[in-house]
Write a structure and sequence with these properties.
This protein is mainly alpha-helical. It has helices spanning 25-52, 66-93, 96-126, 128-137, 142-191; strands at residues 18-19, 23-24. The chain contains five helices and two strands, in the order ββααααα. This is 3681_t:CDS:1.
C-alpha cells in the first residue's frame, strides 16, 4: 500500500509563487514595504499633529483618547522603521539572515497593527456615551445619534478586521519570499 503524501502548512514557509496573484514575490515585498512605510509615517505624523492640536479640539469626541494617540503614533513609527529596514534588505542586501529578520519584523508589525486595530474598536465601544453626548451637543436627536454610532462602530469593525487580515497576508508574502530565496540559495549551492 502506498502512503498518502504528507501535506503541511506553515505560516513560516508558505509556498506562494506570487503576491496578489500578479506580482513576483520580490516586487510584492517591495510594494508591501513601501505601503507599510507610508502607512506608519502617515499615522505617526497625523497622531503627532492631533496631539499638538489637542487643546483646540476640547469639544471633540476624540479628545478622550490623546494618550492612545501618543501610543499609536509611537507604534506607527516603529512600523515605518521596520518597513524601511525591510525595504533596504530586499533592495540592497537580500541575505538569508537579514531576510529572516525581516520576516520576524513583519510578524511584529502584524501584532502591532492588530493591537492598534483592536484598540480602535475598543475605544469606539468604550466611549459610546461620550460619542452620544457629543452628537446630541451638535443638535441631533437620539435616533440619529444612535444610527450614526452604529454606523461608526460597524465601519470601524469591518475596516479594522480587513486591515488585520491584509497585514497577515503581507507578512505571509514576506515569509514566502524568504522561503523562495532560501530554496534558490540551496539549489544554487547544490548545483555547484
Amino acid at each position: 500500500m502506498s502512503q498518502p503524501a504528507e501535506t503541511t502548512f506553515s505560516l513560516h514557509s508558505p509556498r506562494m509563487k506570487s503576491c496578489c496573484c500578479c506580482f513576483k514575490l520580490k516586487t510584492g515585498v517591495v510594494i508591501i514595504s513601501i505601503l507599510w512605510l507610508f502607512y506608519g509615517l502617515y499615522r505617526a505624523i497625523t497622531d503627532l499633529i492631533a496631539f499638538q492640536n489637542r487643546d483646540k479640539h476640547t469639544n471633540n469626541f476624540f479628545s478622550h483618547v490623546y494618550t492612545y494617540t501618543i501610543i499609536e503614533g509611537i507604534l506607527s513609527l516603529f512600523i515605518a522603521i521596520g518597513a524601511l529596514y525591510g525595504l533596504f534588505i530586499v533592495s540592497f542586501a537580500n541575505k538569508r539572515r537579514q531576510l529572516q529578520n525581516y520576516v520576524t519584523i513583519a510578524w511584529i508589525i502584524v501584532v502591532l497593527q492588530s493591537f492598534l486595530k483592536i484598540a480602535n474598536i475598543v475605544i469606539v465601544i468604550a466611549f459610546k456615551n461620550s460619542y452620544m453626548k457629543y452628537c446630541k451637543d451638535q443638535d441631533y436627536d437620539e435616533d440619529t445619534c444612535m444610527s450614526s454610532y452604529n454606523i461608526l462602530l460597524s465601519v470601524e469593525i469591518v475596516q479594522d478586521l480587513l486591515a488585520i487580515i491584509i497585514s497577515i497576508y503581507f507578512a505571509t508574502v514576506i515569509a514566502a519570499y524568504r522561503t523562495h530565496r532560501f530554496e534558490k540559495e540551496t539549489t544554487a549551492g547544490v548545483a555547484e
